[in-house]
Amino acid sequence: MSMPMFSPGADPGSSFPELLKRVGLAPAADFHGDLSVPHATTCVALRFADGVVMAGDRRATSGNLISHRGMEKVVQADQHSGVAIAGAAGPAMEMIKLFQLQLEHYEKVEGSSLSLEGKANQLSMMVRGNLPAAMQGMVVVPIFAGYDLLRANGRLFTYDVTGGRYEEHDYVATGSGMLHAGTVIKIGWRDGLDRAAAVALACRGLWEAADADSATGGPDALRGIYPVVATITAGGWQRLDDNELVDVFESIASEVRSR
User: Which of these, 104, 54, 106, lies nearest to 84 by C-alpha position?
Assistant: First the structure.
C-alpha cells in the first residue's frame, strides 16, 4: 500500500484520527457518548516538628458534575509513607495499589523497607509510565510524603506528568484548588509547627480551596463527610478520626462567622 497523498486543503496534519478519516478507515458513525472520567482534586502536605501532615478533600468531579462525594485521595503507602493524588481517578488509584504492592514485595524479599528516597524514585517511574495516558487527558499528579528514618525528619516530594521528581522542603499542594490551598499554607506555615497547628493549617487550606474552587469539596456535616487527614511520624502513619476533624472545622467556621 503506497503512502496517501493529500492536497493542501485536505491535509490531516498531525492528527491520527483525521488521517483515518481521510483514508476511509474511521468508524462510519461518530461517537457522541460521554468519555469524561472522575477526577480527584485538591491535596496538600506540610512538614511539622514531628513529621508530615497530608490532607485531601473527598470530592471527585466529571466535568461539571460531582461524581463522588467520599473519594479517599490520601492513602497509606506503607508504615512510614503516604501518597495523595490529583488527576484522573481510575489510573491514580491503580497506580497507588501497584505502588503499595511493590513496596510490600520489596520489604518481604529484602527483609527491610526501601529507603524513602527509593520509594520516591519508584513512584517517579510509575508516573513516567503513565505519560502516554496523560497525553490523552488521563493525567495523574501525586504528592509523596513520609518520615525518613535515616534523617529523622519528614520529607515531601511532588511530581510532574513526565515523572519529574522534586523535593519540597516545607509544604506542597496539588489539584485544581492548589493555588488557594497553597497560598493559605504558605502564609501560615512556620518552622517547628506542632501537630495541632499543622493539622489546623492543612484543614484551613482545604477550606479556602473549597470556598473558591467548585471542584474541591468542603466538610459536609450533613452527610458526615470530612477530608482525609493523616500524620506520618517516627511512630508511623496515623489517620485522624472524623470526630477530631469536626472540632477543627467548627473552629474554622466560627472564625469565618466572626469576620
Answer: 54
